[in-house]
Amino acid sequence: MKWLRMYKLLVIASLRSRMQYKFNFWLTAAMTALVSVVEFLLLAVILTKFGHIKGWSLAEAGYLYATLTISKALYRSLASDVHHLEKYLVSGELDNLLLRPIPVLLGLMSQNFSFRIGEFLQGIALLAICMRMLFLEGQLTWAAIPLTVVVIGSGALLLFGIGLLTATIGFWLTRIEQLQNITEDAARTAVQYPLTIYPRWMQGLLLTFIPVAFASYIPSLYIIRGQGGLWLIAASLAVAVAVFGLGLLMWRLGIARYQSTGS
């Protein structure tokens, strides 16, 4: 609880700093949301033209897209600079965090806090529309609402774990931007759409080596399509906890071998 209170204070301080430039703050939020809207509209045009994609309707694909968007926004809001660890390693800014009387990861998470309000609003609005359509079609029951909340939280934890694992590799390689483009950005973008549209080797990659499919696609098979059972939700949560735990372990090993830049 002490560290949570400390994190809260650091986040408030970071927000105050960023709000010194209010126009830039709100413009960035709006542009981020606009990019997400355009991405989904491209998918919507395809689905409207052909009716479905590998058996997935527009509402089902929208559910996948929306839950992952909210999970990503939650992760990037709470731990934005984990994704930018390379900058700290190259410039020596990580040394400043090592001097603070708080855990280094907590200090990094609170740096440049970015509340992605645009992505949250866009994701929530899209999720509400798609769930309403699925309710009217009889595909969902009221149990889908709490299960969806669990999926969003589990997805955020999984994305955080994958991001943390990738970032900690920087303690050995330093330059990890291209690796992050693959494990975080490209992999997450891929599972915004039904996994069945990809070849089997890629499906296997997104289920094992980079298990980002458990952030949305796997639990959604049960929630919106009635496939499998509750064990898919449990398995997704277990994978998220396992990946995040491995990320914390790797972080400790990386911090132990970190050598200051001398700056």
Quaternary status: single chain
How many extended strands?
Answer: 0
**Mean pLDDT score, rounded?**
83
Distance between the termini: 33 Å
Domains, number: 1
The amount of beta strand, in percent, is under 5%
Uncertain runs are none
Rg of Cα set: 19 Å
Task: Tell me the major beta sheet.
Answer: none
Note the run of SSEs as H and E.
HHHHHHHHHHHHH
Overall 3D form: globular
Chain-wise SSE layout:
Blueprint: H1 2-18, H2 22-50, H3 58-78, H4 85-91, H5 94-98, H6 104-109, H7 117-136, H8 144-168, H9 170-173, H10 177-190, H11 200-207, H12 217-223, H13 231-257
Helix pairs in contact: 2-3, 2-7, 3-7, 3-8, 8-10, 8-13, 12-13
What does this protein structure show overall?
It is a single chain. The protein contains 13 helices and no strands. The protein has helices spanning 2-18, 22-50, 58-78, 85-91, 94-98, 104-109, 117-136, 144-168, 170-173, 177-190, 200-207, 217-223, 231-257. The model has no long low-confidence stretch (mean pLDDT 83). It is mainly α and 263 residues long. Helices cover 72% and strands 0% of the residues. Helix 8 (144-168) packs antiparallel against helix 10. It has one domain (22-257). This is ABC-2 type transport system permease protein. Keywords: Membrane, Transmembrane, Transmembrane helix. The chain crosses the membrane at residues 25-47, 117-136, 142-173, 205-224, 230-251.
Short description:
With 263 residues, the protein is mainly alpha-helical.
Relevant terms:
263 residues, mainly alpha, membrane, transmembrane
